[in-house]
């Protein structure tokens, strides 16, 4: 049944990263709850509640709803245990931005190649957590990485020299394939990479992505280029990633001076 479902996802032209993520969660559900054919709505809710973070819970729910809706529609299962899973609420909050002086101190300490690559991908590459988790060595193309970003759009991110060095070191150590391989094949879980970055820096990956976006804009003033680097379809989304410091606020205030030239 899983093989048929994978074929269905390919036929629907789903992104490879999405397919791999669904397969990962279905395998985790099977390991935790038993055969997929016997999973109940209650066991799915228990599994989802055991996950860390609202985004991870949302990811599990999405994968389960997609699979079980397909299985029920195709007649593989008499019922759909995921049909009535309630939506996962994602609380809105102003993003915390990682402080550069703290990150510099962290990066000057000894750490595993895996941790250094994950941190620099988030801060210097501004990649999303899911993009870091599923990044492969064959996504590298010279001084850039080329991969399918959110919404199925091709994305090219040029590599900061420190990030390039971190990826080269990690690839030299563990060979080709996923930069963050899973224990049972495929790629590691988003929870694993999230925890790796959080325990290394004290920040979540999104805080590093926001910090990288802010630094890139302050260095270039090119909002359109930053938008492409982040993989946003809307500049309005990119603007929410740019965080003003007090120096910028003071400059804006001083910029309101009267212009006495006719």
TrEMBL record:
Q: SUPFAM superfamilies of this UniProt entry?
A: DNA breaking-rejoining enzymes (SSF56349)
Looking at the record, the residues that make up the Core-binding (CB) domain are: 1-72
**GO biological process: one example:** DNA integration
Sequence ranges assigned to domain Tyr recombinase in this UniProt record: 92-254
- Per its UniProt record, what InterPro entries does this chain match? CB, DNA_brk_join_enz, Integrase-like_cat_sf, Integrase_catalytic, Integrase_recombinase_N, Tyrosine_recombinase_XerCD
Q: Does the keyword Transport apply?
A: no
Q: What are the GO MF terms of this UniProt record?
A: DNA binding
Q: Does the keyword DNA-binding apply?
A: yes
Alphabetical keyword list = DNA recombination, DNA-binding
Q: What PANTHER family does UniProt report for this protein, alphabetically?
A: PHAGE INTEGRASE-RELATED (PTHR30349), PROPHAGE INTEGRASE INTD-RELATED (PTHR30349:SF64)
Record's family? Belongs to the 'phage' integrase family.
This protein is called: Integrase
């Amino acid at each position: 049944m899983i093989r048929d479902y994978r074929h269905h996802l390919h036929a629907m032209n789903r992104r490879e990263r999405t397919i791999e993520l669904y397969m990962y969660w279905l395998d985790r559900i099977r390991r935790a709850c038993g055969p997929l054919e016997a999973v109940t709505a209650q066991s799915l809710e228990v599994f989802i509640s055991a996950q860390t973070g609202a985004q991870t819970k949302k990811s599990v729910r999405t994968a389960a709803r997609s699979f079980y809706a397909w299985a029920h529609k195709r007649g593989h299962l008499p019922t759909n245990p995921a049909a009535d899973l309630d939506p996962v609420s994602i609380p809105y909050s102003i993003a915390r931005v990682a402080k550069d002086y703290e990150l510099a101190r962290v990066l000057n300490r000894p750490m595993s190649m895996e941790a250094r690559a994950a941190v620099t991908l988030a801060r210097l590459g501004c990649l999303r957590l899911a993009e870091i988790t599923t990044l492969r060595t064959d996504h590298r193309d010279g001084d850039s990485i080329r991969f399918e970003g959110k919404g199925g759009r091709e994305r090219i991110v040029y590599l900061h020299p420190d990030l390039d060095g971190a990826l080269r070191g990690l690839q030299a150590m563990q060979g080709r394939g996923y930069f963050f391989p899973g224990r049972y094949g495929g790629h590691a879980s988003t929870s694993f990479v999230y925890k790796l970055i959080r325990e290394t820096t004290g920040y979540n990956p999104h805080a590093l992505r926001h910090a990288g976006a802010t630094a890139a804009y302050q260095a270039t003033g090119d909002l359109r280029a930053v938008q492409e680097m982040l993989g946003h379809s809307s500049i309005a989304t990119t603007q929410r990633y740019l965080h003003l410091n007090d120096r910028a606020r003071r400059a804006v205030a001083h910029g309101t001076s009267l212009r006495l030239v006719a």
